[in-house]
């Protein structure tokens, strides 16, 4: 197994990856994770050009996703459901398992108090 790892590391070391490519990868990661402020800071610090308009999501869509995620992470499942229904009305209908999981979270949170 270590031989495969050694080969993998050797192959990685042979690659010529530009810093600009790595910076764009980092930007995409920050945006996809909803770290909008960190992405903006990184853009400035790394002095890279990144046009949000070329991104798959608009700034408004990113803000909506962040709002839903924040509500879930802070245990405000009912608020998250309301936001989901408002922003993405078809999501719950098309993914019933998601609705079930959120309802389980509500049940668990209610029983903890």
From TrEMBL:
Top-level taxon of the source organism: Eukaryota
InterPro entries assigned: CTLH/CRA (IPR024964), CTLH_C (IPR006595), LisH (IPR006594), Ubq-SigPath_Reg (IPR050618)
Pfam families recorded: CTLH, LisH
Domain CTLH, first and last residues per copy: 61-103
Protein name, per record: C20orf11-like protein
Native organism: Euroglyphus maynei
């Amino acid at each position: 197994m270590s031989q495969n790892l050694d080969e993998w590391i050797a192959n990685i070391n042979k690659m010529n990856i530009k810093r600009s490519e790595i910076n764009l990868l980092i930007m995409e990661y920050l945006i996809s994770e909803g770290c909008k402020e960190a992405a903006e800071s990184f853009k400035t610090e790394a002095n890279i050009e990144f046009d949000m308009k070329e991104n798959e999501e608009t700034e408004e869509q990113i803000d909506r996703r962040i709002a839903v995620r924040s509500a879930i992470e802070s245990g405000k499942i009912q608020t998250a459901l309301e936001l989901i229904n408002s922003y993405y009305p078809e999501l719950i209908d098309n993914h019933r398992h998601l609705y079930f999981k959120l309802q389980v979270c509500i049940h668990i949170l209610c029983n903890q108090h």
